[in-house]
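Possible race condition, two jobs.
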Amino acid sequence: MAPVLGFLLLLGLCGDTVSEGPLTSTDRSVGLKFEFPPVKYETEESYEAGPINILFQIVHVFLHLVQPNPFPEDILRKVIQKKFDLSKDYEKIIYYEIGIIICAVLGLLFIILMPLVGLIFCSCRCCNKCGGEMHQRQKKNGNFLRKYFAVSLLVICLLISIGIIYGFVANQHMRTHIGKTWKLSESNFKDLRTFLNTTPEQIDYIAEQYTTTKERVFSDLDNIKVLLGSRIYQQLKPKLIPMLDDAMAIGEELKTLRESLVQANLNLMDTKQSLTQLGHNLSDVRRGLEQTLSDSTCHADPVQTTCNDIRSSLGLVNVSINPDQLPSLEEHINNLTAVLRTNLTALAHQGYNYLYTIPERVQNETVNIIADVKRALNSIGSNIETASQGFPIRDRLSYFSSYLKKAEDYIHRYLRVLEEYDLYRWLGCLVACCLLTLIATFYSLGLLCGTYGYDQSASPTGRGFISNTGGVFLMVGVGFSFFFCWLLMTLVVLSFVLGANMEKLVCEPYQSKKLFQVLDTPYLLKEDWKYYLSGMIFDNSDIQITFEQVYSDCKENKSIYATLKLEHAYNITDQVNITKYTGDIYSSFENMNISIKNVMKVDEEGRRNLRAFHSLELDKVDYAAIMAETAKPPTQVNLLTFADNLDAKASNLTPGNLKNSLRSHAETLRRIHDVQVVLLQRLLSAVYQCMQELQQKTTGLGVRMQNILFFVNDTQNFVTNLITAVVHEERRKYVTTILSYFEQYLQWVKHSVTEQIAACKPVATALDSVVNIFLCGYVIDPLNLFWFGIGKATVLLLPALIFAVKLAKYYRRMDSEDVYEDGKVDNSSVSGTWHLTL
């Protein structure tokens, strides 16, 4: 236990420097991933005895029946504190050991009584007593007794054989596995050396991983144009682009609207001019027709009626559209031209260019900041490398390596001695098993020969050679039983007392950790220290570090930092505080000023021009009235129809000036229609379409223009508030991402120091190898199985020899026998010579 404590103490002192390494980052959403290099150890974590483990469990059950008392923690504490007084506490020991004591006393009685009984038995038989006379009395149940004795002896021999097999198996198992002890020790020492060698490598590996973090940060710094500038652009885009698109669209619409107004105005002027000219021409035609109808011919019937009809319809020969109802759009065109001096399309392009150049502007304005951050990162890397190289743990580990080498030489030297003496133990146990085997063999041969050679019809004095040989084998077995059983029982008692106590006092409490709990008793190992380990490591025994907790943590492969609670000497949480390493970086980004000013710069005159758009009132023009007017036909009557009517009426007149004049006016009306009315119809249709398009284009244009004017007027406030907030938020996210790499790295360092660096599993494995595997698995379990098997076989020798003595009478050739005459037995008739044999 002392070397293990020294090892833990040394690593505890080393832990102060291990925890001084670089630190980490927590944002798992970013792409950095750190994987601590795994350390592979050779030694198996657990020991599996194989099929023989069932036999070991049987012995454990037997020991529990013999010794059901719990582990004597109080007695052990007194022994450690040197307060144990045998004269006062012997009752506790007797109470605890009562089962083992009883078994040992019975064994001692067996050892003492069996030689004594054997001596008396031999002496008695030499005096022809105790069955020593070679005379067998005939009994009615003789066959039954012979068979009963034979079957009983056979069963006992089988049970003895099972015990002998246990002994052979246990003896060979111990021999085989003690031979593996050298390999087990080599494996443990190799794991311990691996543990010592990889710890500095783990520290260097953690320091090297800072390079990965730094390179990732450098990459993000070099891509600030995309990572920050593009994010700002993406945040502003959905808020600004719709307004810029609307401004662009309105600018184009205003240009198209002006063109439409100009065209509509031209059509209106042409229409008004055509209407005026048409009105003059139709007035001339009406005057001409009135003069023609004043001819004297029109006063006589029936021409008078025709002339009156024509005179009454002259009012229809006139235009149907009032030119005054077609207003001029010149004023609207002039006002719109003034508005168009403020080029909304150019302003929108200006806004687009401003947005598209935000990433470039961000990159240009952060050149100096990025250079400062990179210098700070390189400085942090230099500090981490210097700190990792300056760890004194390497010197301490090299010291422990030399200590480990001496321990290895010491153990290997004594392992050779152990293997040498184990050979003698193996031979001794083999001899014991062979003696039992020899006795069981004699019994078995006696049963075989006696049963095979027994002739029921033969008289006791006439039994055959084979039957007699069987009886002799049985008696030889009895003699060997008396001669060797006490020696075998002595071996059983010694191994039982040793193995049972080791199992109950070492193996079981070690597996249940009660042994550690005893050692963890406050003020036990040192009166001034509450907890022994914390007193050794920190010189502060109030810190709760227990042997059980250290063993359990090492079993779970936790680091020395967590196992020995080294945060009391070096708080890794304080050391991995991100602000300790990234304060300058955060300050640099906080001072970053990305200037985002006017998106659409409009001077005062431009603002006045945009505001003047409201005075145009294009959406208030009475397009419906104009379209209703232009939808009318140019004349009140169809001139062609009127001309045809004139021709028809003129054809009814007699040839003369009136007839010719009417036909001349009809032709004039046709020319007016073909030349003027048709053109006017096209002009009216064009005006109607223009008015319809203007009505559609101007609908809602005022509201949209008002929004643009609001956007232009409040652009500066928009930049100051919204864009500044967007820039600040995206800058915060960018800095958070940059710092998250450090947070992740520092958290990984913290996790590595507290959970992975110098993981002490080889220490727990080495302790398990010494106690659980070597002592309990290789030695105590087979030792207990050995005495259990040999002890059972030795105890069964007692009933075996009794049945063998009884059975030998039925197999051996007798010197005399009972003679029957008329149903009476004459015991005085003796044939042959009386003699006593064993």
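Job #2 (started ~2 s after job #1):
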Amino acid sequence: MTQRRGRKAPRSFPRHGVRHVTHAFNISRRGLLAMAGAGLASATLPAALFAQQGRNILIIASGQDIPNFDPHVASGYSASFLMRNVYDPLVRVAGESAEPVPGLAQSWENSEDGLVWTFQLNPDAVFHSGAPVTAADVVYSFERALRLAKGNSWMIRGIVQPGQIEAVDDHTVRFTLDAPFAAFLAVMPWIFVAEQAQVEANLGEDDGQTWLMSNEAGSGPFTVERFQVGTMYYLARAENAWQPEGGNLDGVIWQIVRETATQRLMLQRGEAHVAVDLTSEDMDALEGAPGVVRVIEPEYRTFSIKMNTAQGPMADVNLRRAISHAVDYEAILASAGYAELMTGPLPNGIFGFDPDLDVPRQDLDKAREYLAQTEWAEGGLTLRMVHVSGLEQQRRWSLILLDNLRALNIGLEIQPLNWPDMVAACASPETFPDLFPVYQTANYGDPDNIAYAAYHSSRNGGWSNAVYANPEVDALIEAGRVETDPEKRAAIYLEFQKAVVADAPDIFGVLENRKLGLREAVQGYRFTPVASNAIEAWPLSL
């Protein structure tokens, strides 16, 4: 048996010119009003939020709204921010190595064959209602996630089955897996535990999904105090927060700021403590800015442009191949700044990655050859591309693609949308646009993360893979996640990459470094290369 215990004390984040200071940094009434934007009344930012003197309220500027409060339905970085702060998983991740550390579980062990995992819950853990967190709540949450088959449940699909999760006693949970899974412990931080009694009291006709759209049943260090969709979400420190090693924050505001340049200005003016959507130009502009710390770190974060492989003109593989060869990848890279080009569907350098993979690069002669094999041999069609409203980098890439497609006599309609509207468009092939740009940040450093989330057909209907379905690719993904022999597993992922490239479901773009801006008054921050823009606020102080 292998066993792990304990939590390492957090260390300060010493990189990129952090200068630690001891004074608190409080946002003024004027700053809050500036954040809210012109025309927003005090109902948006209630009077209680203006009484900041003597209180430590962290303000995070983000361009992405939080689409849902349901821990077993919502996904994306803004939803991950809420879940990481309002709910608890069995195991968390911390530090630059993304090491597993205790969450609800204070210790765990697994059998030699890798099939049985046993977690001992922290007896101090309580929900916001005051009820203790029990093994029954854990079993209920995992089975609900599997039952709904949404959100992050893909991480354990085919590995954990309903009925294979057992509450041994009030504080002991045992999982018996269908097959060994090398990344099992690494996915545990992304399956969150909800209070069974709260959800079942509000089941309605959809297993509590309607209630959890705008209510929460968590045990995390913060509660949802108030929110206004499209404007801000205010999380208050839970009165019965039980987690050890917390900072001094009284609350956190997730402020919706669509324009990245505005996020940068807010950071410079002291109207926000953290900005999470900054461009390379923003980072350059912040160099040497008083009181500002830049974080520029590599992580497994892919950017690709997904194509509607199931409906409309992009269902033709030759049109997809033509477009893939028309793209000016060097222009995409130059626009990205702190980045490198992708070589196929997996992040460069991850286990199983093939650096010699033959991937499309700009070749207009080849693009025209593929186009000639379609019903649009002379072009003459117009495609639709959406992007996140206010996300300058995606807008630029859309314009690059607009220019590139002119060489094939193909038009491009570009439509900015708010993130919840983009998520809604993924519900069916009929509503999914021809071209859909998406960032995917690995929640765990294993090829299964990107492969399953972005290319397995069970993900259809969600933003990470709205429509792409290929039985050959599905079979390779499923084989890769349960193979324990490293050489055989690597060979499976080599075949996976070749199959995906041949099918051309995506324009493979860039791997961007994570770019965050912080006020230097933020103490206790440590960069973690998974979901790093979904800031975990509990360890932080001002």
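The chain has two domains: 2-294+515-519, 301-512.
Logs attached separately.
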